[in-house]
């Protein structure tokens, strides 16, 4: 499942309730189906439970009117939810584009499922992979340590549990790096790196597929 397919039902249901004074189950099911999310009744109930338990979106059922209602909540909470949806929808678009490119040439993309931390950087990193541009990436270190900046050639992206991970080549040090994207603070485009051919690319990608969380910067 792509990030876009994963988040679409969540976004559709909350957005529909936000725009209305409440909606019954049939209305919500029709809205979901129109958006491309054709859910069973059981999946619909799981969606409601996930919104409440996992994302903190409180939805009540009014038995008198037979309608679901979006409860009052802090504006920042709802804003964070829609910002998360935006990141996931954009992630689905750029990752589909990367997957298409990977099918046409050497593998540069490892298909993820849904993802969270670091999704906001997917679009610019996808562009860097597509165009072969070097990027200056500033990464947050552990508490008490200074942040570090690297000039890197992005090569591949994957999802690991709740995080996005970047595989990149560091020309200056002639070494591969894996970076947890949720720790990225800033990205800047440097220069085309199309003349760079990272050594042992296929082997690096193979190891990247199977690597564990240890050793990431």
Structure description:
The chain has 217 residues and is of the alpha+beta class. It has helices at 3-19, 25-34, 41-53, 75-104, 122-131, 201-210, and strands spanning 59-62, 67-70, 133-139, 148-160, 163-170, 175-180, 184-192. The strands form two sheets. It has a five-stranded antiparallel β-sheet with strand order 6-5-4-3-7. Strand 3 and strand 4 (148-160) form a beta hairpin. Helix 1 runs antiparallel to helix 4 (75-104) and helix 4 packs parallel to helix 5 (122-131). The longest helix has 30 residues, at 75-104. The two termini are 27 Å apart. The model is unreliable at 102-115 (pLDDT under 50).
Concise description?
The chain is of the alpha+beta class.
User: What string gives the helices and strands in order?
Assistant: HHHEEHHEEEEEH
CATH topology of the largest domain: SH3 type barrels
Strand order of the largest sheet: 6-5-4-3-7
Average pLDDT, rounded to a whole number, is: 82
Q: Estimate percent helicity.
A: 40-55%
Quickly count the helices.
6
Percent strand? 15-25%
- For the secondary structure, the number of strands is 7
Measured on Cα atoms, how large is the radius of gyration?
20 Å
CATH architecture of the largest domain: Roll
- Main beta sheet: 5 strands, antiparallel
What is the molecular shape? elongated
């Amino acid at each position: 499942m792509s990030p876009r397919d994963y988040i679409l039902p969540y976004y559709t249901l909350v957005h529909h309730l936000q725009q209305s004074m409440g909606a019954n189950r049939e209305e919500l099911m029709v809205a979901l189906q129109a958006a491309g999310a054709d859910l069973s009744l059981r999946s619909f109930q799981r969606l409601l439970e996930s919104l409440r338990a996992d994302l903190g979106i409180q939805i009540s059922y009014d038995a008198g009117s037979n309608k679901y209602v979006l409860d009052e909540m802090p504006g920042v909470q709802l804003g964070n939810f829609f910002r998360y949806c935006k990141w996931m929808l954009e992630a689905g678009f750029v990752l589909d584009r990367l997957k298409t490119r990977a099918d046409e040439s050497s593998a540069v993309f490892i298909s993820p499922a849904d993802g969270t931390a670091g999704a906001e950087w997917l679009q610019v990193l996808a562009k860097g992979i597509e165009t072969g541009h070097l990027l200056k990436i500033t990464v947050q270190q552990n508490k008490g340590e200074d942040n570090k900046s690297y000039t890197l050639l992005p090569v591949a992206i994957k999802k690991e549990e709740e995080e996005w991970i970047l595989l990149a080549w560091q020309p200056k040090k002639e070494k591969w790096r894996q970076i947890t994207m949720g720790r990225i603070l800033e990205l800047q485009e440097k220069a085309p790196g199309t003349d760079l051919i990272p050594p042992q690319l296929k082997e690096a990608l193979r190891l990247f597929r199977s690597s564990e969380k240890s050793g990431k910067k």
